[in-house]
Amino acid sequence: MAANCTHLDQIRDVSPSAEGCEECLRLGDSWVHLRECLSCGHVGCCDSSKNKHATKHYRATEHPIVRSFQPGEAWRYCYVDEVLV
């Protein structure tokens, strides 16, 4: 599937910004699952969470690729091309 993504060159060696969703932690809110931005390391909640902070981060920054930040999961997703990479 990686051949369908045109943003692989934007993946960086990042460190997670937090152990949970940055914004939800500040708000004292909860989340369902976590995503880590592979451009800057921002950790945000998924679209199944009420706040959808990972997608909001993408819209604000245009950083295209996130990875699951869930233990045991290794998938990555490109928001722009809408594909798993």
Defining traits:
85 residues, single chain, 5-stranded antiparallel sheet, alpha+beta, Herpes Virus-1
Give a written overview of the molecule.
Strands 2-1-3-4-5 form a five-stranded antiparallel beta sheet. It starts with 21 loop residues before the first helix and ends with a strand. The protein contains two helices and five strands, in the order H-E-E-H-E-E-E. The chain has helices spanning 22-27, 53-61, and strands at residues 34-37, 43-45, 65-68, 76-78, 83-84. The protein has one domain (2-84): Herpes Virus-1. It is an alpha+beta fold. Helices cover 18% and strands 19% of the residues. The mean pLDDT is 95. It is globular and about 35 Å long.
